[in-house]
Protein 1
Amino acid sequence: MKKVCLMLAAALCLAAAGCHPEEKPGQEVPGPDPVEKPDDEGDKPDTPVPDGMNVEGKVVDSDGKGIEGVVVTDGQQCTLTLADGSFRMKVDEATAKFIYISTPSGYMPAVYGGRPVFYRSLASQSKKNGVYTVDTFTLTPVAHPDRATVIFTADPQPRASSAGFDKIGYHSLDCCEDLYLDLKETRAAMPADRRVLGICLGDIVHENMSLYTNYIAGLKTLGYPTYNVLGNHDNNPSAADDEAAAADFESYFGPRNYSFNVGNIHFVVLDNLIMKDKSGRLTGYDQGLTDRIWEWLQADLSFVPKTATVATCSHSPMFKTQNGERSARHKNDYANLLTGYARVHAWAGHTHATHNFVYPEAHMYGGLEVHTLARSTGELWTNEYLSSGTPRGYTIAEIVDGEFASWRFHPVKYQRGAFIGPAAPSYELRDWDYDDAGVARMKAGGGVLDESYQMHLYAPVGTYGDSKVYANIFLWDSKWSTPVFTLDGGSSVQMVPVESASRYDFADTAFKTFYKTYNQTLKDYSGYDATTTGNPNTLFSTPVEALSGAGTVSVTDRFGKVYTARISW
């Protein structure tokens, strides 16, 4: 029998939080309901569990057979299930909120309303003779354990349509509905037997706890389960402290620090923003991990072989951002721990700007890769079609043979909501217009906006021209080729990265300048800056001499796929 391995001290979190009654997780995959009591509960002996343990439970497959070696945690310490799938733990009843599992590769937990249910609220479990019996975890085997599609979104961040900062351009809730429809259609276009998972990288709402139900309604329509990350705006600003602020999120989605496995990839979801008071509201924050979360991360990763790929999923970037290296609590600790693994991918949102970066091998974090997504619903406040130069959209990653094999940008093609503000920009630099059904159709050719759109080109004339052709290549990193511009009837030349710290995306700046000039709300708001748009490291340029002309930009992504786009002036 495999020896149970208990690690670290008891949890330091607050009392358990269950699901909202109207949204109680049930079951959408084969197997017993996850909140049902075990059939043999009535036969439980009247003696305490040996060895001072006060929590017991079991992990089984859909045939009821125990699964050995599954990691079980209370949010700080971890243990493994025995040969029959059983586990026992000693937890601090006053502070432990959840008992939950790290779903092993090859299995899926129950899914309710588009949400994976890999946890049990300790407060809702039956207790007899001082021992909690945790409702059995039933896992369903997946057909192709080393093959999956993962859809990453970030910062949907809706506000109530009556909010002052949601009546400037487009309603954020409308943009969220467009996002959900696009995600649903994207999944529907994939093979029916394809395993698809979603990961939303936080800021699910914007400090309005009542809007969680809108988000959950959207998840139910997608056709695949979505794992969720706690963002700073997902915390209740009226709460007393960081721990209490997460209660609403936890009541819908369970623990905010957890893990699961797909093939050889160990996904770790982390809450890396520590909330604090700011002018009487809990909206300020420090970057990094609390001591308790850092202890849990060590315990969780202790069961992961060093040959594995680790994919961290946090709201705020844990490492480098487009503006420099991130400073954060326990950064040196978690960086040293993570870089001991074969491959590390750090996924995040929060900055509202795309940033992909590969640390050089000579760097202390050599080989670690950063993937930061722009806001999936567009620019904050106006909810316009760009977020720091990246269109509304999301990243789709393919897992093949148990590893990340590719990823690509997918733009959202819908804008069905009406313009709300007093006046709209001209959108001269936008590459498409929306038809009567709210579908984006390219100005060149009339085709529907799709995944072939991986860059935005700017002509060397006009308000933003300086005798150069510019290309903003949304997901570019150092493993892509350098883009090449070919002048019609002329030569080809490699484009040069725009290095200046003041670099910006022209279309994004154009509509920001308009709103800053003509919308009174933003004109008087110092937090809205029309002159900078995220300092994108994805911008390239090359000079041209002709007063008029046309040409093509081509670039090869790190997976060998070639993208081309044309520009004329």
Protein 2
Amino acid sequence: MKYVNVVIDNNSDHTDNLYTYRCDDDKVKIGSKVSVPFAKGNRIRHAYVFQVANALPEEIKGIKTIAAVHPDISLSKEAVATCIWMKRQYLCRYIDAVKCFTPSGTSSKRGKTRTPYKEVVGEVTGPRVLTDEQENAVSEIIPFIRKQQHQVFLIHGVTSSGKTEVYMNVIEACIYNGKTAIMLVPEISLTSQTIYRFIGRFGSDKIAVLHSRLSPGERYDEWMRIQKGEVNIVIGARSAVFAPLSDIGVIVIDEEHETTYKSDMTPKYDTTEVAIRRAAKHNAIVLAGSATPSLVSMYKAETGEINKIVLNERYNKTPLPSISIIDMREELKNGNKSIFSVSLYREMKKNLEEKRQVILFLNRRGYSTFISCRSCGYVMKCKECGISYTYHKSRNEAVCHFCGSREQIPAECPVCGSRYLKHFGTGTEKVEEFTREIFPEYTVDRLDLDTAAKKGSIDRILNSFRKGKTNILIGTQLVAKGLDFSNVGLVGIVSADISLNIPDFRASERTFQLITQAAGRAGRGDYAGKVLIQSYNPEHYSITAAANQDQETFYRTESAFRKQIGYPPFSDLFQLILSSENEQEAYEKSKEVALEFIQNAGADEGKYLIGPQAAPMNKIKGLYRYQMLIKCFPGKRKLYSRIINDIKKKINTDRNAKCLISIDINPYSFL
């Protein structure tokens, strides 16, 4: 007879506790998935064992008995410990963390194993000859694997410096020492490229894939292969950090600066933080690599919290591409109202004639950014969110990029009846149309969330470009992340200012990273390549630093600004959003929450609270939103977390509450 404390699979703050049960099955252990009778009706619910004891410390009346233990699915002790840590770290429910570690889907009724990427045949290659810089990097890392000593490394390598080869050499050493590895990429679009290279190096039998584009059945079967120990390498996007591997030796976070590593859904975890936590429990290492490391990672390296390794040269010794800034204000003065500057057009023409490929980057999808009446000024806005619709010409629809609602374009203005309802601004769909018009003899393709919606479409678009069938590839940030094409002679950044104009203290950092990363797609073969940056704000330090490929100057400038205003990496930011169908209710509740925080934290802490105020996106999906930010300086996180968690629980367990509360720690979106 054993006694267990379990987490009930129920998405409610009311049941976010440990419940004690009796268990007759001696095989039950920490992490076991069980079925239990729950609540007054004794409905059978799934649950997960977090604690096991042979006796109770005190008598508990009315204790119930576990109905069944599920032998196929269970969590490791390390996974359970990480779930407990996530609850404290991100103020989520136990079950929110548990679901990160457990598979969706079920086993196939036909008994078939659903294997994604089974048709992929990688090019069989052995290890490349390492450059001196790569050799030094590997030599610095390997001893920690042999000694099974936890350490975090930041690999700061210029684009095309061969970071992936360093990763693969380290993973090879882990496997040789009987360990396993997790390889994380920031976008699903990069998964196929990584899988292709890894299968060529390590074979397909020992590699599993985890990401959200797999079907639930595929994810379930891959999860089971991993748990059974049939694989020793897992490749995937951020959710793969929770892969049920044992004996982890290394977790690699490629393009560690990317915002996609921060979950925007509950639990709102930071992938790098989770990776470091898991690696520490396994005495494993973490490799975080980027050509443009985040300011937080650079700061940690500077203060000695993590080790920094620098790769200054490209693997093939090809010089970094030449980068030029084009002042679009001058283009306008000279009468050029086109999407493309004269220089960009000429360079595109030259590269295409010389049989080189072109990438055009614009981080805004759709055809036009808003639809307005030229007579009265009316702007079409989403009824649920209150933000401007984006015009999508291919569907002749107005689309909200936040809630997904769509409307047909009316023939006349609903306010004044005018027929002068026009669309303004530029998105990737418009750039694609314009490019096809001026280069009709060349093949043009587009990669953004619209064209990537169907399963397999990302692979089709990228494979066509890789094989040279596509001459010009137009895309959002999907084309700026880690793609490796040897024949790209030119990268054109159509508008470098878009990311500067978002209400986010990281706007300059994101701009610097996007430009540098997009520029890094050029000249990865034998040709050095060119990059042209079009901007209406060409003097901004993030743009000039990116054009000069000067990370150090950007880091110093941005760090000084962040320190002055007390933002990360010099503090943690707690974002609290109160939302309600009634705007006044949301506003009043946010004021009440702010007052409660100050009363519990102390009056002196009130100076670190910003707001409450209407969120930039004041209304989303019919809910009005008010937000506040709290700067949490070192030494205060435990106190702030306890106070805010108590506030959250009080609101979420109040059956009469008319507001919802959302908490995000160090968010990447302030909309």
Protein 3
Amino acid sequence: MERREFIRKMLLGTGIGGGALLTCTAALLGYYQPRKEFYLKADAGEREKLALPKKVVVVGGGLAGISSALELATRGFEVTLLESSSALGGKLTGWDIDALGERFPVEHGFHGFFDQYYNLNEIFAAAGVPAEAFDLSPGYPVIFRNSPKEVFGRTSRLFPLNVLSVLEQSKRLDLRSFLNNSKGWFSTSELFRYEYAHTFHQFDAIDFLTYCRKGETLPAFVDTVLHPFADATMNRMEVLSAAEALRYFHFYFMGSPEGLSFRITRRDCMTALINPLEARLKSLGVTLRKGCSAIRLETAGGKVSGVLVDGGGSGGSILLDINPGDLPKKGFASFSTAGGIPVMLSRKGSWYVAYDGRCTHMGCPVTPDESGGGFSCPCHAGRFDASGRPVGGPPKAPLAPLSVELRGSRLVVSSFGSSGNGELLECDYCVVASNVRGVRELVKSSSIGHPEFESAVSSLGEADPYAVYRLWLDRPFDSGGFPFYTVSGYAYTDSITHYSDFQEPFKGWAKKNGGSVVELHAYAIAPEDLRGESELKRAMLEELHAVFPETRGATVLHELFMMQSNFTRWAPGDHARRPGVETPLPNLFLAGDWVKVDAPVFLMEAAAFTGRMAANAIFRRESLRQIPLPIVPMHGLFA
């Protein structure tokens, strides 16, 4: 029955007195509550496991690859999981540093785990991650530059009480002005009318800032709710697709039965989450190949026959062909190959020296370090000397040297090994679950034979770079009982995390030394705002002082600064071209938050969801029972 017809019949029923009205109201409230659903295409069979094992190669050891590998291994597939870095986890990975006479775990930045991460939470549970690994966050506070702090998250899970409680709690919003702004209300109400086909057809062509301005959305609502929360997509509001933003708000709040409730880990994510996941993979017989890069996909008969892998370099292929005159007379110059591989090249006496410019920790591009004559990795504070040897940060292996030849008047740079032969991992199925940069490089170097698909992959983009700045201070400061703050209105800082409030070993260090450990996060830095490391650190530190004035006199005992560019871009128009989980090759599948799906999922949950979707696609081909995939409602309350 249509909702409108349901309401009409309820209201026109006999004798709506006080009791009947209450019954009607209760029925309406019950009818309009968002509820968990299950996303499942037609099931292909009831068999649980393969009769005879088949081989699957999963490329990428982040959440998407881990989720896919776990499900496949559980059903009897022989799974090999490739990860180019030295550790699994993707954006949840971590490493140890030596600081202040102690050993500390660090990671890419703070992560909150929302209750509606249904698939991700099931993956954690399957790996034996205990509930005690998490604490419930006391709320979702937002600190504004020019107005009082707002605290969200402590809301009812019942619609419309969840929305009304936000308005009631807010110091800047009031219900009357919210409802009286009729055109703005229509714009805002689209948050409750999310419906995949309609929303992306209507709103994917414009950015979210334009959407809010055209719809005359109440400015206070934009400033207080939409802008700070939209920034957490890791895409700036002015370059974020309005349709993706509507899906995002539907997933996290408007259409979620869970609201803004989220958990935080008591230990670093590597210890609390990734290590148990790795142990579970090993117990299922998954072959883990860490520090191993996929060079290309080999195809035969219109299918993937195997994955060519190498521990580094590119199997002897030519990377650069340049004019020697393009090199500076002193120091290293950075070049990018057609496949996006960074190359560091320099004159050395009468000859030349070159290195593969991918950091041996996580594959991020290094940059020449003019002060020390070597290289630095801004992503994880890695340092290499001029000979490519690691001298600081998490990298353990040196940069891969490259071959340099003078052919006529041209310099030709290639990896060592002229045969071009790596190790071929034969497979019956392949799941590519790397990040945007990884899948672009892999597909570009492979002979897929489907130009439209290859073009779709090449069109995938990365969001603006983000910065993470962690500080060990010599004194405590009062975070008001909140371990995490969203920050709005500042040039760089978008969130502040008080690690010494909730996570060991930082709590113990702060208690013993009378200090504090805090992390500042700049989610997406606009091109015009990009600065050098020292200037960015100075600006972000000043913003910390503005938010928490008691830190102004604190001494920084140790610091870790990272700048990365590996989050998915959600720009207007991107969605239509995205590749889906299934590809033109019947045994090749994709997984990651960048994959096109019609389900309302986002960020980490999208990675886990698409990893399981890829496994389901393989199960269908083998007539195995598929995994029911829980999701928030497919449609908004008023769709």
